[in-house]
Design brief:
This protein is mostly helical and 153 residues long. It is built from four helices and two strands; from the N terminus they run H-H-H-E-E-H. It has a two-stranded antiparallel ribbon. Strand 1 and strand 2 form a beta hairpin.
Length: 153
């Protein structure tokens, strides 16, 4: 349930950001004024704040989820092993249920950790690409607008 809500929220943020980007491009092609850019900047910062708040809310939720999975795996393995020690290795429904629970929770925890790792790598690559190719603002190719230009004026 919580994963579905997270997916819906992320999909909504994605659609909103793509729509904002398309509208910005369309409006800038029509007329490029400081007031227009200021309005879109406000909207973009507002969307960014919403995304940060969403991330903070889900950080607590998923840290609790990970803790719950670790405890569930530990208790399931302990219960299965204590059942084996007490009654021998007989593949009872209790043992099998506890082993299935441990494997299921381990699989869910692995999928969650793997997706988190892949997302972290993508974000790191994105930041690295931005650092390697910084934005260059120029005045129709005549001069590049940067700090050196501002201090020389």
């Amino acid at each position: 349930m919580n994963c579905a809500l997270w997916y819906i929220n992320c999909k909504g943020i994605k659609i909103a950001s793509q729509s904002l980007s398309e509208c910005f491009r369309r409006d800038v092609d029509r007329e490029c004024t400081a007031k227009l850019i200021s309005r879109y900047r406000y909207l973009w910062l507002n969307l960014s704040e919403q995304l940060q708040l969403l991330g903070n809310a889900y950080a607590r939720t998923y840290s609790t989820y990970c803790l719950f999975m670790f405890v569930n795996i530990t208790i399931a393995i302990y219960g299965a092993l204590s059942e084996i020690v007490d009654h021998g290795f007989g593949f009872s429904f209790k043992e099998m249920g506890l082993f299935v629970d441990a494997v299921y929770c381990s699989t869910l925890l692995f999928i969650f950790a793997d997706c988190s790792h892949k997302s972290t790598l993508k974000i790191d690559h994105f930041i690295q690409a931005i650092e390697m190719n910084p934005a260059v603002v120029s005045l129709k190719g005549y001069a590049h607008v940067n700090r050196e230009l501002l201090t020389s004026v």
